[in-house]
Amino acid sequence: MNNYETVFITTPVLSESQMKETVDKFRTLLEENHSIIVNEENWGLRKLAYPIQKKTTGFYYLFEFQSDGKILPRLETEYKRDERIIRFLIVRLDKYGVEYSIRKRKKRENPETTTKTENTSKEA
């Protein structure tokens, strides 16, 4: 099984329930196709680097998952068909990408512990 992460941006005019419905749709699609969701993050409303479809902001959402890769064409097709999605990206993670995402998650969960560890290693 390979590790992947996908980020999609939805249109900023969605209500909270519509955003939740969109996320549930893609989570269900991944789970029905035997993918294991490792992590998911709601990055919230963010400013876009450039206007897309005359919109300057969008809701960002991230899924990290493990899959054999057969789901990717279907996932891409569903992103393209959904009018609420304005951009998406699917990336296969190598072993360094997986390690980085694990460290990032641990750091977010325990910010005090990682700061102490980093300070101790800098002093040595």
Outline the structure in words:
- The longest helix has 17 residues, at 16-32.
- The protein contains four helices and four strands; from the N terminus they run E-H-E-E-H-E-H-H.
- It has two domains: 2-93, 2-Layer Sandwich (Alpha-Beta Plaits); 95-124, no CATH class.
- It has a four-stranded antiparallel sheet with strand order 2-3-1-4.
- The protein starts with a strand and ends with a helix.
- It is globular.
- With 124 residues, it is an alpha+beta fold.
- A hairpin with a 2-residue loop joins strand 2 and strand 3 (55-67).
- The model has no long low-confidence stretch (mean pLDDT 87).
- The protein has helices spanning 16-32, 72-81, 95-109, 111-123, and strands at 2-10, 36-52, 55-67, 85-93.
Question: TL;DR of this structure?
Answer:
With 124 residues, the protein is an alpha+beta fold.
Can you count the beta strands?
A: 4
- Fraction of helical residues: 40-55%
Biggest β-sheet strands, sense, barrel: 4 strands, antiparallel
Oligomeric form: single chain
Please indicate the count of domains. Answer: 2
Shape: globular
Poorly predicted ranges: none
CATH fold category name of the largest domain: Alpha-Beta Plaits
Strands side by side in the biggest sheet: 2-3-1-4
Which CATH C-level class of the largest domain is it?
Answer: Alpha Beta
How would the blueprint of this fold be written?
Blueprint: E1 2-10, H1 16-32, E2 36-52, E3 55-67, H2 72-81, E4 85-93, H3 95-109, H4 111-123
Antiparallel strand pairs: 1-3, 1-4, 2-3
